[in-house]
Specification:
heterodimer, A: mainly alpha, two-stranded antiparallel sheet, 12 helices, 5 strands, 57% helix, elongated, B: alpha/beta, 6-stranded mixed beta sheet, two-stranded antiparallel ribbon, 33% helix
Chain lengths: 227, 312
């Protein structure tokens, strides 16, 4: 894959309005034509619908279908970090995203809200939102939520990924899915205590291993080990 | 070419003459409509073709080549619907009261301002018809020249009575605008009438095949009857990729324009790109309407120039 910064620079040079539109929709987990449309109409009013198609068919996109497209993760992170430098614009972009996505799956709405809060530096808000998911995972039959967490956590801004709640969520999802590491890097201090108090009660024997390489689990014992 | 008789003509006649119920039936019959008491269509054992397909079907003729009554029933469907309540119970009752599955995607803001859309569409699709008041100037001139007056000259008025053939670009380049196309089709059904709109899909250009059904059933493109306007919902190949096969170059579009011109069909195109992106060769050859929130009635009039003079 090409360097996201280079891809972005090249795209903006050929179509500045579309570049701005791409930045504004970067908060979204997935970008539908409806989101591109509303964002352009509200925040890039000088551009015509061609800018929507320019984003849609651009190299910034990782995958697309008739219903929605996904930005490349590296490009999305870059665009978000730029957007975070302009809080009023960030808030307006969030407002449009929240409005257009009012009917999409709650998990997607939550991920977008956490992204917005993290970019604003509201880590308390991030923790509270993620804790609701951790609490939900303690209920039976929430494997789907664990699967979502496993895919969503690595997509969140770095500050959100470093939160205790994100690691607790990773631990819980890992334990439920019996999967490999979800997050990488150093776990926050106090994670083990937090984790042992929040792990799902219906796991049986589980080893949860937190290390500098991430958090993983295996269904073999009841120990929580921090290497 | 004479005007096709529409349901509106029947309504106008009944309103003006205020006839008795018996006379109403006679007038309707004379105008080519079947009334509730006539041959009952009720439910057919096989599925009825879509309205668009019905219009695309060639007029039926007898073995002697005489046109059958069916050809003079342009709006007979509407009458049939009112007379077949007792015969459509099967599939209709099956779904009565059932709410359609909710559309999962977020609401798409339209490209035309909703308040203006009706006028924009009617402005784009209207053709001139001799349906206005009597043109006394032309009448006097004809009389003064001792020319026989076999038909009262009337002033031209824009009309939608000729219907429209809508060609929907289903190529990759229109992927982000699929819902916009659906919205316009919805408006056309409201403004022009479902029974007067023939909807066909194509990819690349209509010259590669078009049809109202599945792609594999698309056939060679056929122009509608002369004077029927054609509306394209397309990007005219503006967004193209070397990985795509479904876009047409300017030469192919110009060939298509030539065919429509020969058959006497006015063409208008809704393009979701600004004028700076329109292919140079097509700007003068095709009446392009920017598919955009800023498009106004006067912009459409300016793009269309004027409605065609269909009748002499």
């Amino acid at each position: 894959m090409n360097d996201p910064a280079l891809v972005l620079d090249e795209f903006r040079a050929s179509n500045p309005a579309a570049g701005r539109l791409a930045q504004l929709v970067s908060l979204a987990v997935r970008v539908e034509p409806a989101l591109l449309r509303r964002m352009r109409q509200v925040l890039v009013p000088g551009a015509d619908a061609g800018a929507e198609a320019d984003v849609w068919f651009s190299e910034l996109v990782e995958a697309r279908s008739a219903a929605y497209m996904l930005l490349q993760p590296g490009v999305a992170n870059l665009l978000r970090s730029e957007l975070a430098k302009d809080w009023p614009l960030l808030d307006r972009a969030w407002g449009v995203t929240h409005e257009v996505h009012a009917t999409v799956a709650p998990a997607i709405q939550l991920e977008e809200e956490i992204t917005w809060l993290a970019l604003k530096g509201d880590l308390g808000g991030v923790e509270r939102r993620l804790e609701t998911v951790v609490a939900a995972l303690r209920e039976p039959g929430r494997t789907g939520l664990a699967i979502w967490a496993a895919s969503a956590l690595p997509r969140l801004p770095e500050t959100a990924q470093k939160s205790t709640a994100a690691w607790m969520l990773a631990l819980n999802a890992t334990a439920l899915l019996d999967s490999g590491a979800i997050l990488s890097g150093d776990p926050p201090s106090g994670l083990v205590e937090a984790a042992t108090s929040t792990l799902p009660t219906n796991l049986g024997s589980t080893t949860v291993t937190a290390s500098t390489r991430g958090v993983s689990s295996s269904a073999s014992s009841t120990n929580v080990v921090l290497k | 070419m004479s005007d096709p008789i529409s349901l509106g003509d029947l309504v106008a006649a009944l309103h003006r003459l205020q006839p008795s119920p018996e006379a109403e039936a006679t007038i309707a019959r004379l105008l080519g409509f079947r009334t509730a008491g006539a041959k009952q269509p009720t439910t057919s054992a096989r599925p009825q073709p879509a309205a668009s397909e019905q219009r695309a079907t060639a007029p039926q003729t007898t073995e002697t080549g005489v046109e059958t009554e069916e050809q003079f029933l342009p709006s007979a469907d509407a009458f049939e619907l009112t007379s077949s309540e007792s015969g459509t119970q099967g599939s209709v009752r099956l779904l009565s009261g059932v709410q359609p599955l909710e559309r999962p995607s977020p609401h798409l803001e339209p490209l035309f301002r909703p308040r203006w859309t009706r006028h924009l569409i009617s402005g784009a699709l209207s053709t001139n018809g001799n349906t206005g008041s009597i043109d006394f100037g032309r009448l006097c001139e004809a009389v003064a020249r001792l020319q026989p007056v076999v038909r009262l000259p009337r002033r031209l008025l824009p009309t939608l009575k000729r219907g429209v053939q809508v060609l929907v670009d289903q190529g990759e380049g229109m992927q982000p605008f699929i819902q916009d196309q659906e919205q316009i089709l919805h408006w056309i059904a409201r403004v022009v009438g479902k029974d007067k709109a023939t909807i066909m899909g194509f990819a690349g250009s209509p010259l590669r095949g078009a049809g109202a059904s599945l792609r594999r059933e698309w056939r060679e493109y056929r122009t509608p009857p002369a004077n029927t306007p054609v509306l394209l919902l397309s990007d005219l190949g503006i967004h193209r990729s070397s990985r795509w096969s479904e876009w047409a170059d300017e030469a192919e579009w110009l060939e298509f324009v030539k065919i429509l011109s020969r058959s006497g069909n006015p063409l208008a195109v809704l393009v979701p790109y600004g004028p700076d992106r329109w292919p140079t060769a097509l700007r003068t050859a095709i009446k392009i309407i920017p598919w955009d929130e800023r498009t106004t009635i006067s912009r459409v009039r300016s793009a269309i120039g004027h409605t065609i003079e269909a009748e002499k």
